[in-house]
Amino acid sequence: MSKTHVKIPGKLYLAGEYAVVDGALAIIAAVDQYLQVTVEASQTGQLHSDQRDDLELTWHRQGQWLVVDQDHPYALVQAAMQVAEDYLSALGETPRTYYRLAIKSELDDTNSGQKYGLGSSGAVTVAVIKAVSLFYGQTLSPLTLYKLSVLAQTRIGLTGSFGDLAASSFGGLISYQRPLAAWLSGKIAELTIGDLVAQDWPNLMIERLSLPENLAFLVGWTQSVASTEGLLGQVAKNTVDKKQIRQDFVRASQTCLEGLVRAFQEADVLAICQEIRHNRSLLSNYAKQVGLLLETPALATLIDLAEKHGAAAKTSGAGGGDCGIALIADSVKANQIRDSWAAAGILPLDLMIAPPLP
């Protein structure tokens, strides 16, 4: 193709944070704010992002490698481009042409440029791989797209659960368990990219769920930014001598999430709200035990205001800032919650769960 254009949704966690890193269940929503990537045939290799209008990179081919001859902030984008091309080569379609890759994001605040916490690094990884593959005529399944995205992030040393990659690859609402980290790192060194993608990845589980039609999904932004990598690192540091605490938390979170998955499958609104509150309680207790500030004053206010109107509410993601969510089966009270958030300096985000991706 001479030009391709894709848009990939951001994500928000509904439940299962922190435990998901250890292989336990999480529920994640893709949201209808998107990151867009356009790939267009060009005489030279070019890379541009709307977040840095002053920076236009050029890249060239050196054998099978895509090379940029200057320092730049787009290591993840370059890794995603390389993984996409490596996979195409494994399929027998070695890329040889040049193209301009342009990125446009809706996942940040347009006024301040601050991140909402919608998983921009995950969305850009998925979007770049999907767009480059389509440019060369290869349509990837959501599962293949997810696996390639994991490999791209792993190449530059990113760690975590990769749940954002699953949400952005599949769209909609999903239950998720990460693949076994030790197995994956071993197989990356042992197998070709084609063989690795074709393998079943132990413990990996991605299944689609649906939000009951009468259940409103509300998102509030505290207008502050949290670092997921930093918070996970803080937890790792603080739990060196608290292995049992961690194990107990992961076990309890898994039981809670199994109940929450069943509640979504049965469209049981009451049970969904009960398990969301339960998960908040588990996270709060765990944070106190390991010395982690999960609910900042702004997030605590967000949750308390939602609960006063009858909603089930909690932090979303790593906490420490960014977003909180609320679920309520009453449209009038949903609007009251948004108004109360705004009055308290919390920005209600106009977000819905994005449609599933084919």
TrEMBL record:
Pathway: Isoprenoid biosynthesis; isopentenyl diphosphate biosynthesis via mevalonate pathway; isopentenyl diphosphate from (R)-mevalonate: step 2/3
Superkingdom, taxonomy of origin: Bacteria
A GO term for molecular function: phosphomevalonate kinase activity
Gene3D superfamilies tied to this protein: 3.30.230.10, GHMP kinase, C-terminal domain
Enzyme Commission number(s) from the entry: 2.7.4.2
Keywords: ATP-binding, Kinase, Nucleotide-binding, Transferase
Sequence ranges assigned to domain GHMP kinase C-terminal in this UniProt record: 288-345
Pfam families named among the record's database cross-references: GHMP_kinases_C (PF08544), GHMP_kinases_N (PF00288)
Residue ranges of domain GHMP kinase N-terminal in the record: 83-172
Protein name: phosphomevalonate kinase
Source organism of the structure: Streptococcus rupicaprae
Lineage: Bacteria, Bacillati, Bacillota, Bacilli, Lactobacillales
